[in-house]
Amino acid sequence: MSRQIRILIVDDEESFVRSLSFALRTEGMDVTGVHSGEDAFLAVRKQQFDIVLLDLRLPGADGMEVLASIQKLDISIPVIMISAHGDTRAAVQAVKNGAADYLSKPFELDELIHTIKTTLDQSQVALELDYHRRRDAVPANGLIGDCAAMSALRTTIDRVAQSSASRILLLGESGTGKALVARAIHSQSPRQDRAFVEVNCAALPEQLIESELFGAEKGSYTGAHQKRTGLVRLADSGTLFLDEIGELPLALQAKFLHFLENGDYRPVGAERSASADVRVIAATNRDLAEQVRLGQFREDLFYRLNVITIDIPALRARGEDILSLVSHFADRQAQAEGCRPIEFDSETQGMLRTHPWRGNVRELKNLIERLTILYPGKTISADVLPGEFHQTDDPHYSDGANRLSNTAHPQLQDRLDVTERHIVQDALEQADGHKGRAAEILGISRHALKRRLQRLGLQ
Q1: Which of 256-270, 347-361, 416-430 shows the lowest mean pLDDT across its residues?
Q2: What is the pLDDT of residues 90-136, one digit of tens each?
Q3: Of 42, 41, 16, 18, which is closest to residue 31 (Cα–Cα)?
Q4: How many helices (H) and strands (E) does the chain have?
Q5: 210-224 in b/e burial notation, b at 16+ Cβ within 10 A?
Q6: pLDDT at res. 85
Q7: CA dist., res. 428 & res. 260, Å (int)
Q8: Which residue blocks in 275-409 are alpha helix, DSSP H?
Q9: In this model, does residue 395 exceed pLDDT 60?
C-alpha cells in the first residue's frame, strides 16, 4: 500500500497488545495499543485509524459498548472483534451490531493479516458504493422531459419508491434510461441512505456471476485466492439493480429465485447460508414472456419479478422532449470538455425532432458528445449531422424496424472515430506535439484532450 495501515488494538492484556503490536509493525503497519474502552474512545477521537482490533471482554465498558461508541464517532471505521474461546456467539452478535468480522484467540498472524486486508478491501468497496450512490442519486423530478409519458413515469416512480414493493421490473428498449429510473426509485425510497448496487448481467462472465452476486469463500474455485463479498451482501438494506436480467444464466436463475422467495443465499463454497434484505429492481429490453416460451427464462422467476412493472417510453414517443434533452446534454458535455455548449440551427432542430432514435436517449447523448468534441462551441448545421439523418428512405429507420437493432451503427461509429482521430492528430502536428497548445487549437481543456487521446489509442 502507498501508506501505512493505521491500527488501534484494544485489549486489557498488556503482553498480548505488546506482542501483537510488534508483529504488525514488522509487517509495516502503524500500531497504537490501549487497554480499556475509555482509552479506545479517546484514541479514536484524537487520531484517525483505518481499522480497530477490539477485545470483547474489557474492564469497565465491554467490547459491545466500545463498538457502539466507535460507530457513533465514525461509522466508517471497520472493527474486528477479538473473542476468547467460547465467546463465538457474542462475537457473531457483535457482527450483527456492525462489527466487520471477528477472530477467536488464539489465532495465527497470517490469519489476522488476511482478515485485516480483506476487511479494508470490503470497507473501501462500501465507501466507493456510497460515493457513487450519492453522486448518482437522481430524484424522479430530475428526469428530463415534460411530455405526458414522462409525467406519468415520474408519478409511477414516486408511488413505487415509497411503497413496500421489493420486486420491480423495468421494461424498455436499450438506451431509454432504465438505470436512471432505477436510481430515481432508490433515491426516492426509504432505502436512499443505503447502498445502490448495479449489476449488468450481460457483462459478467457466466462462470463468475454466481460468486459476484452471492460471494465466495477462499479456495472455493480456481483463482479464489481470498474471500469475496457478494454484491447481494453489499446491497443489504439497500437496492440491487440487475440490468439485462434476461441474460442471467438458466443455472443461476433457480438460485436467484430462491433468494427472491426467502431472502437467503449461500456464498460459493460456504457451509452456511446468509441472508439479506434487498429491494431488487430488474431491467430488460427483451420480451421475457417470449424467452419463457422458448425455455430461455424460468417461468416462476418471470412471475416472481413481474409484480410491479414499469414501461419506459422510447425517445421517438417523446418528440416534444428531444430539444430539452439536447440542451441538457450539450450543457453537460461542454462543461466536461471545457468549452461553450454547441447549438443547433432551426433546420437541424427539426431533423433532431423527427429522427427515429433507434438507440434512444443513449444515441442522442452520444451524438451530442461527438459533435461537441468535433465542433466545440459551434452552431451545428444539418450538413454536419451523420449520414443516417439524411437517409429518410432507409428501412432501418421505420418505427417497426427500430426494434430490430438497439446498438449504435458500427459504420457511423467507425467514421466518427476516424474523423476525430484525424482532427486530433492535425492539432498535435500544428502544436509540434505540445498537448496544451493542441488543446487550445481544438478549443477544449487539456484534460479533455488527454481523455480523447486515451480513447483513440493515440497515447
Answers
A1: 416-430
A2: 878 888 888 888 888 888 888 888 888 888 877 665 555 554 444 44
A3: 18
A4: 18, 14
A5: bbbbbbbbeebeeeb
A6: 63
A7: 55
A8: 288-293, 299-305, 322-337, 346-354, 360-374
A9: no
Cα(90)–Cα(113) distance, integer angstroms: 22
At position 354, the amino acid (one-letter code) is T
Task: Record the cell numbers describing residue 200, joined without a space.
Answer: 449488468
**DSSP 8-state assignment for residue 247:** G
The residue type found at 435 is K
Reply yes or no on whether the pLDDT at 410 is more than 80: no
Q: For the stretch 340-359, what's the b/e string if a residue is b when 16 or more beta carbons lie within 10 angstroms of its beta carbon?
A: ebbebeeebbeebeebbbbb
Which grid coordinates are listed for 189?
425510497
Percentage, residues of the chain above pLDDT 70 = 85
C-alpha distance from residue 71 to each of 53, 98, 166, 260, 312 (Å): 14, 8, 29, 31, 41
Burial of 368 (0-12, 13-18, 19+ CB in 10 A): buried
Angle in degrees, 0-180, between the axes of helices 410-430 and 446-455, rounded to the nearest 10: 130
**What are the distances in angstroms from CA 216 to CA 210, 228, 242, 287?**
8, 5, 19, 32
Higher pLDDT: 121 or 192? It is: 192
